[in-house]
Protein: Diguanylate cyclase (GGDEF) domain-containing protein
Organism: [Clostridium] polysaccharolyticum
Amino acid sequence: MKKGLTTAQLEVAAILAMLCEHLSWITFNFYTPQAHFMRIVGKLAIPIICYLSVSFYEKAKNITKYILCLLLFWGLSIYPYHIFYTAKITGKQNIIFDVLLGFLVMAILDSLKLKKIWKVILIAAILILSICFSNNPLIFILFMADFRHSHSYNRMVRTIIKIAAAAVLFTLISQSICQSAGAYVSREAWKESVNYIGFLLAIPLLKKCQLRKKEEVVKGYFLIVYPIQFLLLKNFVHITSGNFYRIYLYIHLLGILIVLRLGYSTLKAKLSHVQTANIVMLSFALLFMLGYYFQLTAFSLQVMIAAVKIEMTGLTGMIIGFTWFMNEFCNNPISNFVYIVEGMVTSACIYAIYTLGQNKLFYKAVGVKHFKEHSIIVSVRGPVWILFFAYMAMIMLLTLFMCLYKMKHSDGIERRQSVTLLIAEGAGFVLLMLRIILRNEEYDVGTFAVFSFVLLFSFSICQNDYLDNIQTERERDPLTGLCNRGYFIEQVQKKLEKKIKGTMFMIDMDNFKMVNDNYGHGTGDKVLIALADSLKQVMGSDNFVSRIGGDEFCIFIHSHIDENEMKKITERLEVKFHKNLEQRNLNLLSTLSVGIARYDGKGKISFEELYENADKALYLAKNSGKSQYKFYA
């Protein structure tokens, strides 16, 4: 049976349709046939967005939280929406505003606490808001209210046809009334009513869509892409008109939005020392970028100097956060001397910048240079400016060597993170040197150095490093530092529920009781720690490693590896374990038995079933002479 469209594919179709409509405003004359055709295609996005919104409403656990989320994204999209349309749509709001009103209407209708009279009053107020401020008055509310109770495709089709016909008639009638009242109406205006026929184009797409399944989740790509596409399209307009400074400004604004999104992703994760350092770095980077944006858009010297103060406060704080970040990530404590230098240079910079009018430490002289559409600050560099950027270069070189060392002595996800950080630092260092060496009055590459830092750093650290996410004593094994049985079961069960292929290794030390009896429990603990360190070194941190209890350990690898790879893993583990024992002067004979069970991602399997399969394979390995591995057949 041929599968239909997923919700993600439907969202992409809606985004492309919206993009088609928005392009019609900048590529063709408004009343040309090509522009009308593009706007007709664009209208198919509205029924799709309404249906996806209703689908999400029915599955959402916290409607209030999602309404607040819509409110936030509406606020973020107001500025991009209006800079794109400028005076073409005066006082009208964007599509997210329409979705928000639709959500409010559904929430009011479903409320059990509100009396009927209050429901009528509130819905009437929302309808008035839609008529006054929406670019598509009442249409979203009508679609969403009807789709809320449409449980058949045929009824949904009838709804789309009715609303399309009503929109066409309403537009024609309103234009006739305006014309008869003496208002000017263009001869071509009647063609706008034809655009609503585009609603019908959504019918075949919705027919192919398999919605309202329990496992289907609306991803929300539309909310993220909607404000960004206006900035990109506006940049396209500026490119074609040769206004590159505006492009530079919008790229900077886009960078601020991305930093906000990275901060949100980091806050959602369970906080660790590395994540906390990353949040500090992102917060100050955001302060720097906001200060620089204010500097770019200011015209007076006083405002520019105030913006520079904000900018430099953010930059000094970001460097401190960056040093802390690298210290935590590399597990290689930075010398106290570096922190002392950092504190002294930061204090000198803050003092110099906030007493700019009283001394010539940071800038020897400052002024304003005016261009056609903007103004920039021009300055002569002072001794503290030179000291600060020399200090930045020193910190970056130091952390570059730390990254290289970390990359050389790690594997798995830590190695990939180190490579990403190395690229980030390399890009930042090159751009920083260009800022120091080159004096471009109109474009400052320093802001792109900061942006490359935070983007690549946050991207690398926001990976699923599960060891870094173990935060509480309840989740951590106190002896080895690995996750304990409860946390391991919880995380693996989540993977199995999502039908992610995986391989479970169950590892048990042979004759561990003899080690405790002959050498004491202190030595036994050292052996357990040596095995835990061996597991971390061999498996990296992109797989789950746990101490289940006693001398029993488990690994869950997020892939369906073949027998040859399993053999290599067990051999590497055995070699690494004996090497760690030798380094700790534990001259005793201790071998490992391993049981392996695989899940191919087909069908359902619980943690208990997979664990039992690995346990049976381990039992077979023990009974076959120990110091070997066996598969569950």
